Amino acid sequence: MTTEDKSQPAGERVLIFDTTLRDGEQSPGVALNIEEKLEIARALERLRVDIIEAGFPASSPGDLASVTAIAKEVRGAAIAGLARAVAADVDACWEAVRHAEHPRIHVFLSSSDIHIMHQLEKDREQVLEMARTMVARAKKYCPDVEFSPMDATRSQPEYVYRMLTEVIKAGATTVNIPDTVGYTIPEEFAEFLRQIQAHVPNIDKAVISVHCHNDLGLAVANSLAAVRVGARQIETCVNGIGERAGNASLEEVVMAIKTRPDFFHLSTNVDSTQIHRTSRLVSQLTGLTVQPNKAIVGINAFRHQSGIHQHGITKMRETYEIMDPRDIGLPAGAQFVLNKNSGRHGLKARLDELGYEITSQELDRVFVAFKDLADKKGEIDDRDLDALVSGERRAVEDVYKLDLLQVSCGNQAIPTATVRIVGPDGAPRETSTTGTGPVDACYRALNQLIGVPNQLVEYAVNSVTEGIDAQGEVTVRIEAGGRTFVGRAADTDIVVASARALMNALNRAIAHLPGERQEVMSNP
Ligand code: KIV
Ligand code: ZN
């Protein structure tokens, strides 16, 4: 068939279970607040995923609140919550998801000996009993129950078959086979699923799902191998984020199935035209940048550098493109550009098109920042707008705000920064410090003023757009109170962007570590 053959029948449906808000949120450095989680959940609703795993309600009061809020608001998709196989988790999960149109409780329990013996410190029979009773408990609350034997791919297969048989008897309607540590290989995984189908007598009573991690870069390949042999739910994260190397990427799974109906004879319910904007939103809110060459959503995914390719594309797009960029929601043709003559209305219209749900107060602030940036750099494209909106949103939550920053540096000078910030009491605090360079001087000053003990573990500057007048976007990662916090900021002056990014990370640390805040409040 040709790459654009639409004559293939749609085929059987594969359910897309999105866990960006649960496994994705477990990515190191990611800490989303409730508003950010709701915004991602709304984007997933528009994307038309079948199931949204909204969080792990028993893990923290914040997760309980955010899963509850999502269950109350989001319609269409089923809303799942994760629960360990213990009564308190199952009860908390139900408490949160019960408000959903279609609630789901997702119970998990390890099945590998390495987890059973060293983590759970139990034996196989005890674990089997926990799985059975907790699935039965979940079933009393909710007709839709999923069960995952964690680390299934490193478990004794016969034990997994027994566990699945028992949980299906107890009421599980979906059995999810996790490759928790990203260990399996496509052919091997497909064979494991075939054996599950052969050895679990009641398997026809449950949907088979897969949850693959990307430690060997095989999460998508393993997931696709699984649907070839009968799995009908794939667990994914937008941009492939998640624990360690992440999970199977939603956009890669969905576009593989859509692009190759001749091979898979399957379909999903996902509206692929929402992929691009959802990917950008998740990247902005999590602070996890998408690598330029990332399949489907990387900035280079539809760019052609070689003259021969460009020549081919201008004659016929299909010469070097297997997907139509419009299918993932990329605007056809040139990037949309605004400038200093663009009005509030034009800005709002473009932000709407990009999928931002922006309040009129937010728009007021973004418009001021937009005018300021347009004065400095002339043309403002979608990437600038992303940086502006996320900068304004992040700044709103900040307890400490940057008021003044002056830096002197040069090849004959001692880099010195004078910094003034305004704290929650509205009082300015100012200090001057020297450092090895302007950013170091500025960071020393901010750390003195804010007083949250932390270690800078990553500092990166990227250009938001091309050109010497481009904004520099700074991403920092700090460790404070045993957790990692990401800060991000963009400005045409990279020292200003650096200062704001550190302040953003410190403000996030303060919001999540109340003890540290005490120290801050008593700081002069
Ligand atoms: O990777 C894993 O095993 C999980 C389970 C909770 C499904 O995330
Ligand atoms: Zn996982």
Model description:
This protein is α/β, with parallel strands linked by helices and 524 residues long. It folds into four domains: 12-286, TIM Barrel (Alpha-Beta Barrel), CATH 3.20.20; 302-333, no CATH class; 334-393; 401-522, Alpha-isopropylmalate synthase LeuA, regulatory domain (Double Stranded RNA Binding Domain). The chain has helices at 34-47, 61-73, 87-97, 113-120, 124-141, 157-170, 186-199, 219-228, 250-259, 261-264, 275-286, 307-315, 344-353, 360-377, 382-397, 438-450, 494-512, 514-521, and strands at residues 12-13, 15-18, 51-55, 78-84, 103-110, 145-150, 174-179, 207-212, 233-236, 266-267, 337-338, 380-381, 401-408, 416-422, 428-434, 455-463, 472-480, 483-491. It has an eight-stranded parallel β-barrel, surrounded by eight helices. A three-stranded antiparallel β-sheet has the order 13-14-15. Strands 16-17-18 form a three-stranded antiparallel β-sheet. Helix 7 links the parallel strand 7 and strand 8 (207-212). Helix 1 (34-47) packs antiparallel against helix 11 and helix 5 (124-141) runs parallel beside helix 6 (157-170). The longest helix is centred in the last third of the chain and has 19 residues, at 494-512. The chain starts with 11 loop residues before the first strand and ends with a helix. Bound molecules: 3-methyl-2-oxobutanoic acid (KIV) and zinc ion. Zinc ion binds at residues 23, 178, 180, 211, 213, 243.
